[in-house]
C-alpha cells in the first residue's frame, strides 16, 4: 500500500509538470514595479528567450511555469532596466583615460592633478576633463600661464566639465596656429588685455582639437567596454549616446555582434552635412541592441561657460548674450530634410533664445506630421510664453543639472528669468511625457542621483531646505517613468522595453531598497544587487 501511494504521488507530480511550461528563468517573491500603463505591482515573472513571457503573483507563476533557474528575490525590489535618455557613453569611457578634474576646488588643484597624471602616464599629449570655475572661490575662467611654465613642450588641453570650453597651454594653441586674431563661427577665442588666455569656447575648440591625435580603434573599444562595466553596475541597460560619428557607431555594432558589448545603445548621429547625407540615404538601423534613427544638433553652448544663447543679456555679464553654435539657415535646411525621413532630430538647447528658435523651427517643419517625437535636449531655460511650443516637442532633461547649477543659475539669469529654468514639471505638463538622463560624464553616472534630484530638487547635503524651485520637482512615479517607459518612448522603443510586461525584452534590475518608499534622503545610497539584460545577469 505504501509503495502504491508513492507511485501515485510521482505520477501526479509528473503529470502536473507536463502541464507546466518550461522557461529559462522564474523570478519569484519579488516587489516588482512593472511600470505598465496602470503602474501596477507584481510578485513574479517568467523569462524565456530573452523576453518576459508572464507577470503575476508567485503562486500563479509557480502553477504554470517550471525552470532550472528559479530565483527567490526574498522581497527585494525589481524595476525595469533603467534608460539614460541623454549621456555620452563613449565619452565616459574616454574619461577614464584622461586626467580626472571633477570636483577640483581651485585651479591650483587642477594643475596638481594634471602633474600627478603626467608623472604616472608620461604622455606626449595631455588631456584632462572636469574642471568647473563655478566651484572655485575665484569664479573666473583660468588662464594658461601656469600651464605654459610647467609644460613648455607638451600640449595640454583641459576640458570644462560640460565640454563647452577648453583651456589650452601655448604649445597646444600652436598646433592650430591660434592667435588673438583667430575667429571661429559659433565659438569664442577668449582674449584678456590683448593676449590669449588659452580658453576656447564651443566651436572654437576645433581650432586646436582638429590637430589633436585621434583615438585609435583600440582606444574606442577599451572606452566602450569600460563604460559598459560602470553603467551595468549602476543598473543602466540602455544608453542614449548624444553624439556619435559613423566609425563609433560601426564599432558599437561590431562589438554587439561579437557579444563583447551587451549594453543597448540608442545612437544619436553627430550633425555634419556628410553624416546627414550618409544616414538619410542609408535609412534607419535597428538591431536588438542598436538603434540608429536620430541626429544630434547643437543650437547653443552651456550656461556655465556663458555660451547659452539668451534673449536678454546675462545678468552677470551685461551686453553678453551667448552664441548660436549652428546658424539658423543650416539648422532650418537640415530640419526640413530630416522631417521628410524616418529620422528624429534631437537638439541641444540651453538658453531661452535657443529654445525658442529650435521650437519654432520644429513646429514649422513638423506641421501636419504626428508622432515624430523630436526632442530638445536639456530645455534648460524657457520663456514662460514658450512652454506651449512644447506640446508637440519632447523634452529630454537631466535633473542633476538643476541641483548642480542652482548655486549660480540666478546670477546668470536674474530672479525673474530663472523661474523658467529647470522647469521640469512645466515641461511634463506641456508634452505629457519627459525623458530623463544624466548627461554623464558632465554629471555623475548614477541614476539614483538623477532620481533623487528629480524628486527632492536638493543636493546631497539636502540644500536648499524645501528644494530648489520645488514646484518643478517630479513625483517618484513620474521620475521612474521618465527613466524607463517614457525614455523608451523617446527612442520609439516603448513596445519592446521600459516596463516589465509579457512580450517585452527582459531587462530589469534588483535593488537593495524600495526606491518608491524609502526615505527620500536614502535614494542616493540605493545599490543595484543585479542587472539583467535579455534575462541574463551582467
How is this structure best described in words?
Residues 1-16 have low confidence and may be disordered. α8 crosses α9. This protein has a domain at 93-209: Diaminopimelate Epimerase, Chain A, domain 1 (Roll). The chain contains 18 helices and 27 strands. It is 33% helix and 23% strand. Strands 10, 17, 18, 19, 20, 21, 22, 23 and 24 form a 9-stranded mixed beta sheet that branches.
Compact overview of the structure:
With 538 residues, the protein is of the alpha/beta class.
Described by strand count, sense and barrel closure, the largest sheet is: 9 strands, mixed
Basic shape: globular
Structural class label:
alpha/beta
Residue fraction in strands: 15-25%
- Average pLDDT confidence is 94
Q: Which fold name is given in CATH as the topology of the domain at 93-209?
A: Diaminopimelate Epimerase, Chain A, domain 1
The CATH architecture classification of the domain at 93-209 is: Roll
CATH C-level category of the domain at 93-209: Alpha Beta
Q: Mind telling me the C-alpha Rg?
A: 25 Å
N-C termini distance: 51 Å
Helix share, percent: 25-40%
The number of E-state strands comes to: 27
Q: Stretches where pLDDT falls below 50 for ≥5 residues?
A: 1-16
Query: What's the helix count?
Result: 18
Descriptive key words:
538 residues, alpha/beta, Diaminopimelate Epimerase, Chain A, domain 1, nine-stranded mixed β-sheet, six-stranded mixed β-sheet, 18 helices, 27 strands, globular, disordered N terminus
Amino acid at each position: 500500500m505504501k509503495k502504491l501511494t508513492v507511485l501515485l504521488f510521482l505520477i501526479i507530480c509528473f503529470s502536473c509538470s507536463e502541464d507546466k511550461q518550461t522557461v529559462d528563468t522564474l523570478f519569484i517573491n519579488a516587489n516588482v514595479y512593472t511600470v505598465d500603463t496602470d503602474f501596477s505591482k507584481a510578485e513574479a515573472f517568467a523569462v524565456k528567450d530573452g523576453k518576459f513571457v508572464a507577470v503575476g503573483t508567485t503562486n500563479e507563476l509557480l502553477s504554470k511555469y517550471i525552470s532550472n533557474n528559479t530565483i527567490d528575490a526574498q522581497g527585494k525590489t525589481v524595476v525595469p532596466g533603467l534608460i539614460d535618455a541623454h549621456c555620452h557613453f563613449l565619452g565616459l569611457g574616454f574619461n577614464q583615460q584622461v586626467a580626472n578634474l571633477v570636483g577640483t576646488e581651485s585651479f591650483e588643484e587642477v594643475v596638481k592633478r594634471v602633474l600627478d597624471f603626467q608623472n604616472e602616464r608620461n604622455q606626449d599629449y595631455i588631456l584632462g576633463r572636469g574642471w568647473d570655475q563655478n566651484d572655485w572661490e575665484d569664479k573666473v575662467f583660468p588662464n594658461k600661464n601656469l600651464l605654459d611654465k610647467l609644460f613648455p613642450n607638451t600640449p595640454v588641453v583641459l576640458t570644462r566639465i560640460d565640454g563647452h570650453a577648453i583651456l589650452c597651454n601655448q604649445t597646444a594653441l600652436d598646433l592650430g596656429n591660434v592667435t588673438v586674431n583667430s575667429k571661429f563661427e559659433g565659438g569664442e577665442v577668449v582674449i584678456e588685455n590683448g593676449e590669449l588666455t588659452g580658453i576656447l569656447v564651443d566651436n572654437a575648440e576645433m581650432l586646436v582639437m582638429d590637430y589633436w591625435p585621434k583615438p585609435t580603434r583600440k582606444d574606442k573599444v577599451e572606452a566602450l567596454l569600460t563604460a559598459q562595466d560602470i553603467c551595468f553596475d549602476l543598473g543602466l541597460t540602455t544608453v542614449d549616446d548624444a553624439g556619435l560619428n559613423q566609425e563609433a557607431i560601426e564599432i558599437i555594432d561590431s562589438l554587439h555582434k561579437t557579444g563583447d558589448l551587451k549594453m543597448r545603445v540608442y545612437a544619436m548621429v553627430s550633425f555634419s552635412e556628410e553624416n546627414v547625407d550618409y544616414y538619410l540615404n542609408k535609412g534607419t538601423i535597428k538591431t536588438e541592441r542598436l538603434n540608429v534613427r536620430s541626429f544630434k544638433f547643437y543650437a547653443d553652448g552651456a550656461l556655465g561657460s556663458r555660451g547659452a544663447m539668451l534673449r536678454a543679456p546675462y545678468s552677470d555679464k551685461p551686453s553678453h548674450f551667448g552664441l548660436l553654435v549652428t546658424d539658423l539657415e543650416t539648422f532650418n535646411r537640415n530640419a526640413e530634410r530630416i522631417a521628410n525621413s524616418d529620422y528624429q532630430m534631437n537638439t541641444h538647447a540651453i538658453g531661452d533664445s535657443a529654445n525658442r528658435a529650435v521650437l519654432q523651427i520644429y513646429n514649422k517643419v513638423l506641421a501636419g506630421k504626428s508622432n515624430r517625437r523630436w526632442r530638445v535636449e536639456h530645455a534648460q531655460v524657457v520663456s514662460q510664453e514658450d512652454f506651449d511650443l512644447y506640446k508637440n516637442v519632447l523634452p529630454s532633461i537631466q535633473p542633476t543639472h538643476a541641483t548642480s547649477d542652482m548655486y549660480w543659475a540666478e546670477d546668470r539669469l536674474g530672479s525673474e528669468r530663472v523661474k523658467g529654468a529647470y522647469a521640469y514639471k512645466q515641461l511634463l505638463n506641456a508634452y505629457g511625457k519627459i525623458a530623463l538622463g544624466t548627461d554623464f560624464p558632465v554629471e555623475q553616472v548614477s541614476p539614483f542621483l538623477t532620481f533623487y534630484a528629480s524628486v527632492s530638487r536638493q543636493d546631497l547635503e539636502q540644500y536648499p531646505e524645501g528644494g530648489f524651485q520645488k514646484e518643478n520637482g517630479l513625483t517618484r512615479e513620474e521620475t521612474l517613468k521618465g527613466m524607463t517607459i517614457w525614455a523608451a518612448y523617446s527612442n520609439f522603443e516603448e513596445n519592446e522595453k521600459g516596463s516589465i510586461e509579457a512580450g517585452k525584452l527582459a531587462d530589469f534590475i534588483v535593488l537593495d531598497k524600495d526606491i518608491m518608499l524609502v526615505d527620500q534622503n536614502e535614494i542616493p545610497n540605493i545599490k543595484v544587487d543585479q542587472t539583467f539584460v535579455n534575462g541574463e545577469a551582467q
